[in-house]
Amino acid sequence: MIGIASANVTHAGALASLFLFAVTGTGHVLAADALPKSGSVSVHSGYWAVGEAVTVADKHVQGHGNNRGITFNDTGSGPLHLGPTDCFYTFSTAFDRTKVKGYCTFGDTDGDRIFTDFAGAIQSDGYVQGKHDVDGGTGKYSGIQGTMTFKCKYSGSNGELECIQRLDYRLQ
């Protein structure tokens, strides 16, 4: 049975997962030639995180989960505006320090996608912060490379997660 400490770790792990989703999603339907060859995109995201945790030793919890959500381009339109995000993560908490790792897919409403892998950690202020490495994409995002920073925090008690992200990219 998962105790209160494990539940808090699970919440932290879910937060980390949610952050993953937020890092890469900002979709708006654009023509393939409308995306500049390089640039930055700032987005904010909302997720629902679902995770599972196991206490593997005293003060050591490990787990996994997924986040599903939607991203909003901070300008109100453009790349990744209203696009779906799906993230899958693992986490490990040892002596009150939680690290997360995982994979995300961010998209536009037209079906074009960006694929990432990420790593981060929960900070003393309760935020999960880290970085996504962009592994490629489809459609207008074909050949994309870059990084996406993220900062996420739980906004509710049922796995709700809010994130802010910045994608810095170039198309090959």
List the defining traits of the structure above.
single chain, 172 residues, mainly beta, AOC barrel-like, eight-stranded antiparallel barrel, 1 helix, 12% helix, elongated, disordered N terminus
Blueprint (SSEs and pairs):
Elements (H helix, E strand, L loop, with lengths): L3 H21 L13 E20 L2 E14 L10 E11 L2 E11 L5 E10 L5 E10 L6 E11 L5 E12 L1
Antiparallel strand pairs: 1-2, 1-8, 2-3, 3-4, 4-5, 5-6, 6-7, 7-8
Structural class: mainly beta
- Major beta sheet summary: 8 strands, antiparallel, barrel
Main β-sheet, spatial strand arrangement: 1-2-3-4-5-6-7-8
Instruction: Tell me the CATH topology.
Output: AOC barrel-like
Order of helices and strands: HEEEEEEEE
